[in-house]
Write a structure and sequence with these properties.
This protein is about 20% helix and about 35% strand. It is α+β, with helices and mostly antiparallel strands. It has one domain (about 1-130): 2,3-Dihydroxybiphenyl 1,2-Dioxygenase, domain 1 (Roll), CATH 3.10.180.10. The longest helix is centred in the N-terminal third of the chain and has 11 residues, at about 15-25. The chain binds carboxymethyldethia coenzyme *A (CMX). Carboxymethyldethia coenzyme *A binds next to helix 2 and strand 5.
């Protein structure tokens, strides 16, 4: 069911302050920067071989990312798993006893359809199911 790790989400206080490490020190290509209003975040995607790194900067104190940074500090926030037929995958996860944060897919960065699993039912990791609509791979 899982095609690959689509991306790893990293919570940061400031994209501007963090990006040079990724683009200059690690020399990763910057795919783009985008604001995701529904999640109250500004994100930067970097290509790291077959997978991506998503830097997430909160745009509001209400953002899940702001709360995460306040509690735990900057660092790895979630792992996104690339899937097909995300609605079916959500049903499958429910049937297997996984508590979904999102019972329906919603729109994430880059037009992806996403749904999060609750970290309490995955041994402490916030996993995102992620389907790129209209794009393969
Ligand atoms: N990874 C692992 N555990 C996490 C976590 C994370 N990223 N965020 C919170 N938790 C844990 C907390 O440590 C806490 O555990 P304890 O009770 O043992 O301390 C528990 O989950 C509850 O956390 P909380 O701080 O009380 O926060 P909430 O319950 O209010 O929210 C969560 C947690 C995961 C349900 C919420 O952040 C959420 O719905 N996330 C999905 C949406 C999201 O993260 N959006 C931002 C990214 C969007 C994008 O990629 O575009």
């Amino acid at each position: 069911m899982i095609k690959k790790v689509d991306h790893i989400g990293i919570a940061v206080k400031s994209l501007e302050q963090t990006l040079p490490f990724y683009t200059e020190t690690l020399n990763l290509p910057l795919i783009g920067i985008e604001e995701v209003d529904s999640q109250k975040v500004r994100v930067a995607f970097l290509q790291a071989g077959e997978t991506k790194i998503e830097l997430l900067e909160p745009t509001s104190d209400e953002s899940a990312i702001a709360k995460f940074i306040e509690k735990r500090g900057e660092g790895i926030h979630h792992v996104a798993l690339g899937v097909e037929s995300i609605e079916e995958r959500i049903i499958e996860m429910n049937e297997k006893g996984i508590r979904m944060i999102d019972e329906q897919p919603r729109l994430g960065a880059g037009g992806a359809h996403i749904a999060f699993m609750h970290p309490k039912s995955t041994s402490g990791v916030l996993y995102e199911l992620c389907e790129m609509i209209g794009k393969k791979g």
